[in-house]
Amino acid sequence: MTMKKETLEFQVFSGGKVIIDLSKCNQCPSNACVQICNLPTMGRVLDLKNGKPSLKKDLKEIKRGACTECLGCELECELRGMKAIQIILPTPELDEYLKEIETKGMRPVYKVSWRSR
Amino acid sequence: MARLYEYQGKELLNKMGISVPKGRLAISPKEARKTAEEFNRPVVLKAQVLSGGRGKAGGIKFAATPEEVEKVAMELLSSQIKGIAVQKIWVEENLPIKKELYLSVTADPSHRRPVIIFSRDGGMDIEELARHSPEKIITHQMNILKGLREYEARDFIRRAEIFSSEQVVALGAILKNLYDLYRKYDCKLVEINPLVLTKDGRFVAGDARIDIDDDAIFRHPELGLASTEETGERPPTKIEIAAGRIDEGDYRGTAHIVQLDPEGTYSREIGKIPIAFDCVGTGTSLTTMDELVDLGYFPVNFADTSGNPTASKLYRATKIILSQPGIEGYLFVTCVSSQQLDNTARGIIKALRELYPNTADRPNIPMVFTFRGAWDEEARKLFDEHGITQSPWVKILRRDATEKDSALEFDALYKKWKKETGGLES
């Protein structure tokens, strides 16, 4: 576990990382991230220590796939917590593709407006 | 299956000790001419495309002088072979051919082992030869645990009954090296057709076709291949390369994505509306695509995100699928599956949140999601909780919906969207 300015950060198998801003967790009314992570079908890698999430397993084990990348912690924190979790899952080839089509004057559909607006 | 270009295949053959003609890659007529000047002899120019039947399609041409080489290279580089634009050509010395042979090692699914195939008549379609003159083909089933010893290779070649002792030794060595290449690079096929016996008595690989097993590509970074779905005879698109990375080395479910109409131009040409598409289960995928086409839509991609993939796979797959330009809608349908659909939904929701940050995660095109199977109610609930279903352009269908219902609901939603918004700016 690496601690930086009250941040819990760990890498996941598919390439990417989970970053939890622990400074926000003191005010968390739900600890929803820990709850969802410990449901029977989930990865069960998060634990609650002193009111904040911590890791139950070592970083190597988590990176080898113990974290099942369900994304539950981030989305539950968004809904019921303090919006303290960010999961970064890079897609470098897609980023490269998007840059390329931009140079051709093309845009992906989510950047296009409606005609009537 | 990842197919190597001829020039890449010849590099591997050469590395394994099999003689190949002197050659060089060219991407312009000037480069081709320069190579011909250096070789100072007649050359053959070969379009580097992945399709078979290249010679019959006009992709192989001969030229005697540098001027002729430049002219022929210009023609080739502005041509298409079976619909694929020629972007590079292989310029190589013209071999003095005495006889053409055929040699390959391929996977034999019926015997579940590699098989060596040899014919004294090469340079033609081996399937055609097998139909008309099967007696000219000899085969040998391999035992991968034992491998191929040189004497076994020579015994095999001897069965052709036309070669001198010296030739048997030379061909045996080529066969041994070819089999070693097949195993070393996790191939599905290594084929030399023709294997040329030159007038001065050498055996040289006139062509090279090498197909690598998709699932083994990650073991061969030295080949610089992208791990993608099978794209037939065309090279993978950037989107397919990005999608191929999702499953690379990660066997927790799958994300199969192939583009059918990368820029949505074909759809419009045939009067259909291009839309993006994803399914859980290939059967559902194909059935739903059929329903969509009947209603006037054309899925610009095939996708199957099944086998209980991680939510992170769905996140990446959804971002990739929705990055295809020109699409006017998105349909996601699951089969009645045991897949944990709440995780599937989380991946899609995270992608939509990132793609639509300015509209509270709500998409600007019609989207229908049909969740059927394990945790399907949780999936629907997550879409509600995250406010995505508050969009008038999102509809969630439940387990009582069929593939046809999904397509019909999409059709109704699309028409409403088009009427009220005018569609997307061009």
**Fraction of residues of chain B in helices?**
25-40%
Integer-rounded radius of gyration of chain B = 26 Å
Strand content of chain B: 15-25%
So what's the overall shape of chain B? elongated
Describe the largest sheet of chain B.
7 strands, antiparallel
Oligomer: heterodimer
Strand count of chain B = 20
Query: Largest sheet of chain A, described in full?
Result: 4 strands, antiparallel
**Element-by-element helix/strand order of chain A:** EEEHEEHHEH
Strand content of chain A: 15-25%
So how many helices of chain A? 4
N/C terminus separation of chain B: 37 Å
Overall mean pLDDT of chain B: 93
Cα-atom radius of gyration of chain A: 18 Å
Q: Report the end-to-end length of chain A measured between terminal Cα atoms.
A: 49 Å
Assign the structural class of chain B, choosing from mainly alpha, mainly beta, alpha/beta, alpha+beta, or little secondary structure: alpha+beta
**Nearest-integer average pLDDT of chain A:** 93
Q: How many strand segments of chain A?
A: 6
Biggest interface, CB < 8 A: A-B, 36 and 45 residues
- How many helical elements of chain B? 13
Describe this structure in a few short sentences:
The complex is a heterodimer of chains A (117) and B (426). Helix content of chain A is 30%, strand content 21%. With 117 residues, chain A is α+β, with helices and mostly antiparallel strands.
How would the blueprint of this fold be written?
The complex is a heterodimer of chains A (117) and B (426).
Chain A: E1 2-3, E2 7-11, E3 17-21, H1 32-37, E4 46-49, E5 52-55, H2 59-66, H3 72-80, E6 85-88, H4 92-103
Antiparallel strand pairs in A: 1-2, 2-3, 3-6, 4-5
Chain B: E1 2-3, H1 6-15, E2 23-26, H2 29-39, E3 43-47, E4 60-63, H3 66-77, E5 80-81, E6 84-85, E7 89-93, E8 97-108, E9 113-119, H4 126-132, E10 137-141, H5 150-158, H6 165-184, E11 187-198, E12 203-205, E13 209-212, H7 238-247, E14 256-259, H8 265-269, E15 273-280, H9 282-294, E16 297-299, E17 301-304, H10 311-321, E18 330-334, H11 341-355, E19 367-370, H12 376-385, E20 394-397, H13 403-421
Parallel strand pairs in B: 15-16, 15-18, 18-19, 19-20
Antiparallel strand pairs in B: 1-13, 2-7, 3-4, 3-7, 5-6, 8-9, 8-11, 9-10, 11-12, 11-13, 14-17
